[in-house]
From TrEMBL:
Record lineage: Bacteria, Bacillati, Actinomycetota, Actinomycetes, Kitasatosporales
Keywords: Membrane, Transmembrane, Transmembrane helix
Cited Gene3D superfamilies: NCX, central ion-binding region
One MF term in the entry's GO annotations: potassium:proton antiporter activity
Organism listed in the record: Streptomyces caelestis
Protein's cellular compartments: Membrane
Topology in membrane: Multi-pass membrane protein
Transmembrane segments: 31-52, 64-87, 99-124, 130-152
Location of the Sodium/calcium exchanger membrane region domain: 34-175
One Pfam family hit: Na_Ca_ex
Full protein name: Ca2+/H+ antiporter
PANTHER family found in the cross-reference section: SODIUM-POTASSIUM/PROTON ANTIPORTER CHAA, SODIUM-POTASSIUM_PROTON ANTIPORTER CHAA
Keyword Protease (UniProt): no
Length: 178
């Protein structure tokens, strides 16, 4: 409750959008229908990623890039719907909603994908390989430490945001050029 104002939608001028501008809460039936449609959309996005992965693999191979770039491109493809929604919110001057969408989708993807794959490996044959080498494990650990230092104080500073962007750029560089 003490950080509620961090998650209220605001305009570029730091004005909180009032509750009257929000849509009413959905009924239970609407929520269940939305949940079902969300599941169908998820299956569609994952199916699309699975269907285009051979083309992406051949393009990455033809460009002479490392095979890990395929995973980065597919992750960007899976996050594309949330990215579009976040950009639309930012364009409508709902910056906080935009940030919530962007960070929430990234955290959900990371926080749900690895446990889902680990759980599936219980029933599937073969070893569980997450595909992280020693360099990427160090970057992951460094990202966790920096994220902890960013989240604990409450609000992020531009310097902390810059550090996160540098870590992301390092990850992309090392994925392309190991």
């Amino acid at each position: 409750m003490r950080h509620r104002d961090y998650f209220l939608p605001i305009t570029r001028h730091d004005e909180v959008i009032t509750a009257e501008e929000h849509a009413p809460a959905p009924t239970a039936r609407t929520a269940l229908v939305s949940l079902g449609l969300l599941g169908l959309a998820l299956i569609g996005v994952v199916g699309l990623a699975k269907g285009v992965s051979p083309t992406i693999e051949s393009g990455v191979e033809a460009a002479g890039l490392h095979h890990a770039v395929v995973g980065v491109i597919i992750a960007l493809l899976v996050l594309l719907p949330e990215t579009v929604a976040a950009l639309r919110s930012a364009h409508r001057d709902r910056v906080q909603t935009s940030l919530n969408l962007a960070l929430g989708s990234a955290m959900a993807s990371i926080g749900l994908t690895i446990p889902a794959v680990a759980l599936a490996s219980v029933w599937l044959s073969g070893p569980l390989v997450l595909g992280l080498g020693a360099t990427h494990m160090v970057l992951l650990a460094l990202t966790v430490v920096v994220a902890s230092l960013t989240v604990v104080p409450g609000r992020a500073t531009p310097l902390q945001g810059g550090v996160h962007l540098v870590l992301f750029a390092a990850y992309l560089e090392l994925a392309i050029n190991p």
